[in-house]
Specification:
The protein is α/β, with parallel strands linked by helices and about 350 residues long. Helices cover about 30% and strands about 25% of the residues. The protein has helices at about 1-10, 55-60, 80-95, 110-120, 145-155, 240-245, 270-280, 300-310, 320-330, 335-340, and strands at about 15, 25-35, 40, 45-50, 65-75, 100-105, 130, 160-165, 170-175, 175-180, 190, 195-200, 205, 230, 250-255, 280-285, 310. The longest helix is centred in the first third of the chain and has 14 residues, at about 80-95. It is globular, with a radius of gyration of 21 Å. The protein starts with a helix and ends in a 12-residue tail after the last helix.
């Protein structure tokens, strides 16, 4: 009986694409930014184009949704920077009152960074904002793009606010998505968190426990600091790298450490980190392991780091840790405030306890 109860809770929200209904069509805004999904070959390889390349696939979707299309940029996602994140966030915040949901087509290479950043920049967004793309352009017969668009539009019509990534018939929170395959269709996984939804024979089934809660009024908090560096620890890494980053003006460092957060402490191994913290740089420790969590309390080396004043990234993805730190610095927070912020889950980016 208990199993049945939880099964009902998990699957009570689902949207069946193509199901006939007397209800008005949902109003969905598609924002295009370029990426593989909208690319076509030219003399130098694949290059992104505008939304006209999507016309055929959108025509079928219009049987189920009222779709408005807006081209806001046309970029390979490798060229999408924090400035473009801010542009997207401002457009979404300006447009959301007029729509039931928003789909953002985006290149896959940096989609996880963009989705994580907008999760923090758009707190309490009351409608679904769903990022999607493809590994093969829509112009090719075997593209995964049509399927990803269908999943994204179904999620955008579901009525649950938040920032999500839809890919390969799965939906995940934007701050938990990571690209794990360069060319395979299962390009994204939800790291250290269940999927928010899956497409099954019954439609789009959502896990109610993975849907964000709106705890306040929607807001646009798009200030970011670009002075954050993501550093992967390697055996024998010179501590001078931390001095160099400080001299370059960086205000935050996300350090991908070993295992549970191990760092070389022999010789001058900790001196660079210590100096960075003393200079006012917020140093967040995550793990190079894709799954599980950094826990600096387990080993002596981790406890030494905590004594220096570093911040635990716990089970956050590197993308979420970096964009959260960029966002926190952009809000004008100091070291102590940032440390406190990283002990809280703002949008499901961290598993507490």
């Amino acid at each position: 009986m208990l199993f049945y109860f939880f099964s009902v809770i998990i699957t009570m929200y689902y949207y069946r694409v193509g199901e006939t209904s007397m209800e008005p069509k949902k109003q969905i805004l598609l924002l295009t930014t370029g990426g593989t999904i909208a690319s076509a070959p030219n003399g130098d390889g694949l290059a992104p184009r505008r939304s006209d390349i999507m016309a055929h696939d959108l025509q079928r979707l219009r049987e189920y949704y009222e779709i408005t299309v807006e081209d806001i940029m046309c970029l390979d996602s490798s060229n999408i920077r924090p400035e473009e994140w801010q542009q997207m966030a401002r457009v979404i915040f300006d447009r959301y009152p007029s729509y039931d949901g928003i789909v953002v087509s985006h290149g896959t290479d940096t989609m996880a960074y963009t989705a994580s950043a907008l999760t923090f920049m758009l707190p309490n967004i009351p409608i679904p904002v769903v990022f999607t793309g493809s590994q093969v352009p829509l112009t090719q017969a075997l593209s995964d793009g049509p399927d990803n668009l269908r999943t994204a539009f179904a999620m955008a019509a579901c009525g649950h606010g938040g920032v999500f990534v839809a890919f390969d018939r799965k939906v995940m929170r934007g701050c938990r998505a990571v690209k794990v395959r360069a060319s395979g269709f299962s390009a994204f996984e939800s790291i250290n968190a269940r999927y928010a939804g899956r497409v099954t024979g019954r439609g789009l089934e959502l896990d109610a426990r993975m849907l964000p809660d709106c705890t306040g009024a929607p807001a646009l908090r798009d200030a970011l600091s670009k002075d954050v560096f993501l550093l992967k620890l390697t055996p024998g890494l010179s501590p001078d790298i931390f001095y160099a980053l400080a001299q370059m003006g960086y205000k935050g460092i996300v350090l991908e450490a070993f295992g549970l957060g191990g760092v070389n402490v022999l010789g001058q191994g900790l001196s660079g980190i210590q100096k960075a913290v003393e200079l006012g740089i917020s140093v967040v420790i995550t793990t190079q392991c894709l799954y599980d969590s950094a826990d600096l309390r387990v080993y002596q080396v981790g406890n030494q780091l905590l004594e220096l004043g570093v911040i635990q990234g716990r089970d956050m993805t590197s993308e979420a840790a970096m964009t959260k730190l960029m966002w926190a610095l952009g809000q004008g927070m100091d070291q102590q405030q940032i440390a406190q912020l990283f002990s809280q889950s703002l949008a499901g980016e961290i598993t507490l306890n």
